[in-house]
Request: fold
Amino acid sequence: MEVKTLALDLGGFRVLQGGGNLPVLAAGWYVDLATGARVYFDPKTMNFYTLAGGVYIPLSYMNPAPKQVAVAPGDKLKISLSFSYSGPAITGAVIRYCIGVYGTFGFTENMVWENTKNLALATTPTPYTDEYTFTIPSSIGADWNDIYCKIYGGSPSVPQTLFGYENALTIAGLTPNITSFTIKDFAKV
Amino acid sequence: MQTLEIVFQPMALEQKTFSVGSTIRVTVSFKYVVGVNATVQLMAGPYYSNIFGKHLVSPCVGKADVQLTAASTPADKTAAVDFILVPKANGGIENGTYGLRVWVEGTQALADTDNVLVVTGNPGGATDVFSAMMPMMMMLMMMGMVMPMMQSASGGGGEET
Reply:
């Protein structure tokens, strides 16, 4: 069975206890180079916000998928992850992989896997990769097309960092998904 | 060097005329993905439109089973379904112009085109003449009932004065 791959990039992060060498941004407005959108950074919460309707809303960790992967029951889907880390050595950081449904009330995790990883002491951002391969079950829902990953926990604890893709999967489930349906011809027989 | 991209659009369906009792074969094309081998029901039939929307002529709807082999990437498929223009005398379709609708049961796949089926061949017998004249006859009968009452009411008032 073919293994299909979806790659995610968590970017860089540092530990809560400090000691990381990633630059701390000053409070203020920035431009997201990927989308061109203006975002506000709050150094107290270490989070980016967007302004909508006069309210500052934390930026979503979910993003439009750069590509769609078609999967069917029995297929193997490999999710590969990359990130950079600088800070003290971490033992047992948890990397969580989830497939499910992202909606108004958050992410419903239908398929989950967790890896643990040790991160070495680093004074400069050091790249890491990780991966997990899911086997798509026959019970997969037609709407289980969202994916997210997060890294958290360990000793000392790393800040929870999330990243995900919406509509990353095209599910070939038990019910046919039909597109481009057109009448070609009709005639008396 | 510059290039010019030309996209061929599917041609619009031409209006065709059929006699009642004819069997019509509709051919459709689509793409699909499905995780397991599956059988779907392809349905087709004529419809008419009015201010309340589009209405299928149910007695004329035909169906056919279509086998779909498992495909996790979009696969092309062509399928056909037949339906019969059941005469009005048998509870079917009247003479007139109809649209054509095709769909796959249990999915959102649906395609329809207005005014492509012209149905002829239903006999215009005495029953049809009677039903066409029925509203006029009803109105005459009502007038026949109301007019004498109005005359008697006006006539009675005159006698009292």
Q: What stands out?
A: The interface with chain B takes residues 70-75, 138, 140, 170-189 of chain A (CB under 8 Å).
